[in-house]
Amino acid sequence: PKPTHLSDYRPPAYRATHTELTFDLDSHATRVKARLHLERHPERAQEDDLPLELKGAKLELSSIAIDGQALEPGEYQVDDKGLTVPKVPTRFHLDTEVVINPQANTALEGLYQSNGMFCTQCEAQGFRRITFYPDRPDVMATFSTTVVGDKASLPILLSNGNPVERGELPGGKHFVTWEDPFSKPSYLFALVAGDLEKVEDHFTTASGRDVTLQIWVEKQNLGKTDHAMASLKRAMRWDEETYGREYDLDLFMIVAVDDFNMGAMENKGLNIFNSAAVLTHPQTATDATFQRVEGVVAHEYFHNWSGNRVTCRDWFQLSLKEGFTVFRDQSFSADVNSAPVKRIEDVSFFRTAQFAEDAGPTAHPVRPDHYIEIGNFYTLTIYEKGAEVVRMLRHLLGWEAFRQGSDLYFSRFDGQAVTIEDFVGCMAEVSGLDLGQFMRWYSQAGTPEVDAHGEYDYANATYRLTLRQRTPATPGQPHKLPLHIPIRMGLVGTKSGEDLTLTLEGETLGRDAVIHLREEEQSFLFTEVAEAPTPSLLRGFSAPVKLYYPYERNELAFLLAEDSDGFNRWDAGQRLAMLAIDDLIAAHRNGVEKVMDVRLVDAFRSLLTTSMKDKAVLAQMLVLPSEAYIAEQQPVVDVDAIHAARTFVKQSLALALRDEFLAIYEANTSDAPYAPEPEQIGERSLKNVALGYLMAIEDEKAVELAERQFEAKHNMTDVRAALTLLTHSSRQDLADPALKAFAQKWASDPLVMDQWFTIQVTRPQPDVLDRVKFLMEHPAFSLKNPNRVRALIGAFAGQNRVNFHRLDGEGYKLLADVVIELNRLNPEIAARLVIPLTRWKRFDDTRQGLMKAELERIRQEDLSPNLYEIIEKALN
Ligand code: B3K
Ligand code: ZN
């Protein structure tokens, strides 16, 4: 397979302006008739004799005509990439009829079947598996779609836009015709047909239009849509109030589908969701799931403007819609829940997972400049780093100007397919800022590192902060240029605990300000600094960088207690814990006795005993850095030492603060009926974090509490927390009956069974590999369903570090076997699943050898372009 390059972009020779489709649905042989109204692209009007080239994959062509005239065999060519017609008029319509096989489609791209229901996934390049088409985002057309299906088995027939006609047909069939008046690229096309039921609601837009809202599910899931519907309405209101964006059609539909590669898809007027990202019920979904559903529903809805009304010119611009939309959904969740908790959760995930991506063989810029398979680029860098870049723009401009820039972007480019330059250009235009250097954030991969160093001059009452930046080399980018890095900061008076006023070059900036690092090295001299300060840097994680400052432990304990920025209080706690963990990792390696850092115990004791308003923030502060995060900080990852050190810290804290954790647990058990509200969620997470510490030492009381919590069945959050702790403990006498009871109760709910799989395969004990193999044979498991694969194999490889990285290589082998199998079934999922193996360079020689051997074994296979691209990057 050959790469596609951004620099090769040209407008298409022909574009479609209106597209008429008729689907005659059948599991094995669906007939798709297409009439494309095509015309020469104005920018290519001068070129002679341009052939018509349409994309197409796995299509069986049964007829083709231009302006009603059937083409002779010599007048066109079809190969496995598509259709070419050498001679065509400048404006014409093309009729084709193709046959496709939805049943055989295990890749879940294009038209496929899930539990008998027909559905589509077209982003990025799935539409070419439906019909021959200029399948690229800069071709935007209005669509008219007729869906024909068996009336008994497919009573519901849906597509984008509004239903305009329906009727009966011979042979027990019926049809519905849908019209979408908004021009859209093919990747936003959707079709759903099945035996579905709906929940309906209404929303009145700011300008007073009534929008019908529908969530379509299989009958047994009818009781699980309330939260998604409420989230949708909140998101619609929020987008009106925050960005001035109103919904544009009269109908907005969401459909829940069980077999789905991603979380959800923003098809115009017909969002298709992985059922895991839409269905909730207090008895089956955890708080985390409730919050994820709220976030994903909002994300897909927000795409209606950031993605659909204004879309991407080409797939290199993917972050234009994804980065901006993630930023929008993060802001929404922060506004409707607890803002500091949302930020802590997002950053904690980002610094673990995106930093790892940026440091590995698949590192790429927010705007890549080439790809083999675009399906491999739906990454944390495009999504989450892209969102951080938008967040920096928001900080640089301030909210008012940022909103003006956003308004300008939506009005100027409505109905168009545009680039990242167009977006940033609007921001520069409204603010007058020079964002030239800032654009490097889009083109340079890798995580910038900033070294900070500070000096207080008592005699002159000045503080000099020196910052130095560097971005490490990444594949294909050996040399990096300095970035424009906004650093939000404060100077906290070490005596007063107050933020001191910041005066920089005679200008008073306030007590919390953003300084701009643009050079490789830059000094900032603050004057009139009344007392010796402790710097609080990168507040709120104002830039996606690693910030190093040689903090002493007492300084971190001080910031943990005093920093006015909640995020940096949390971060100080994480840094303090990291120092303790580092010592213990060294002790473990050197075989010397492990000694717990009393300063960490003291810091935790004050956290546990001073009452804090936001319990969810407190819960976050009590969570130790994860093994994955700790691994990110090490030059060579020592899996076992990390596990041992972290476990030791957890147990030591539990031993020293048992009564305090117990008191926290007891103070946060309420019998109030379940609600996914911030306050309750905060209480539950605090309680369960406390129980986690108590179970780390497995004292009798803790075990009793866990058992009781499991049996009370109050809600899935508490049940799952208890079951996880029991399963991960040494008390298999308790875990086994609990797991059994749980499986019996939930055997027919696949999303709950996914949790059951994950809980078991993340067990740290060494017997787990056999359990993984055993569970792969379980009737509730299937390699064909991406949720099952993620819950079992993905969770094992991604979350069970000690066992995945077993020294006998059996963990790696198991993953490679699954990847090889999935390469045939579902290339997109295979290419995602293999990622942990690609990070082999981070480990010791023995593990490196074992991991590489498995990658080489995979390479022997007949690989899909998806896996080919990832494996080549990993082995080069
Ligand atoms: N835009 C979709 C991505 C689907 C791509 C699958 N290959 C989900 C989202 O970001 O909203
Ligand atoms: Zn998205």
From TrEMBL:
Assigned keywords, A-Z: Aminopeptidase, Hydrolase, Metal-binding, Metalloprotease, Protease, Zinc
Any one GO molecular function term: alanyl aminopeptidase activity
GO biological process, one term: proteolysis
Cofactor names: Zn(2+)
Residues annotated as domain Peptidase M1 membrane alanine aminopeptidase: 228-441
Aminopeptidase N-like N-terminal domain: residues covered: 20-188
EC assignment: 3.4.11.2
InterPro entries reported for this sequence: Aminopeptidase_N-like_N, Aminopeptidase_N-like_N_sf, PepN_Ig-like_sf, Peptidase_M1, Peptidase_M1_dom, Peptidase_M1_pepN, Peptidase_M1_pepN_C, Peptidase_M1_pepN_C_sf
Chemical reaction(s) catalysed: Release of an N-terminal amino acid, Xaa-|-Yaa- from a peptide, amide or arylamide. Xaa is preferably Ala, but may be most amino acids including Pro (slow action). When a terminal hydrophobic residue is followed by a prolyl residue, the two may be released as an intact Xaa-Pro dipeptide
Pfam families: DUF3458, DUF3458_C, Peptidase_M1, Peptidase_M1_N
Domain Peptidase M1 alanyl aminopeptidase C-terminal per the UniProt entry, residue ranges: 554-876
PANTHER family: PUROMYCIN-SENSITIVE AMINOPEPTIDASE
Family matches, as NCBIfam families: pepN_proteo
Similarity-based family: Belongs to the peptidase M1 family.
Summary of the function given for this chain in its UniProt record: Aminopeptidase N is involved in the degradation of intracellular peptides generated by protein breakdown during normal growth as well as in response to nutrient starvation.
Record's protein name: Aminopeptidase N
Species whose genome carries this gene: Pistricoccus aurantiacus
